[in-house]
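Record filed here:
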Amino acid sequence: MQVYVNGESKQLADNSSLAELIAQLGLPAARIAIELNRIVIRRANWEKTFVREGDRVEIVHFVGGGNENPPTGNVSRSPTAKAAAQGPQAWRFRLTGSEGVESVAQLLKRSA
């Protein structure tokens, strides 16, 4: 069957679950959130949620990391700037979805 993953056409076996799709794509399940036809699907439901012909799947992939060279000099002392300057403890992310993606905070909250 044909489905769209992050806007790209993909061929999947009939009756594929979201968990099977993630495995087929080789994605780390612990670091992603999935939206199926504009509805965020909880990780606990991936095994029992099946993709149908023409479905649109958006996958948001979170990448942890930090800045090995934190900024120096005259850095703003706002809470956000302080967190950003902490280097390895700071987190960054990459959105790989192409449409209909909610804010990262909402996705994390809803997919847990």
The CA atoms of residues 64 and 92 lie 6 Å apart. Residues 2-111 form a domain with the Ubiquitin-like (UB roll) fold (CATH 3.10.20.30). Confidence is low (pLDDT under 50) at residues 73-102.
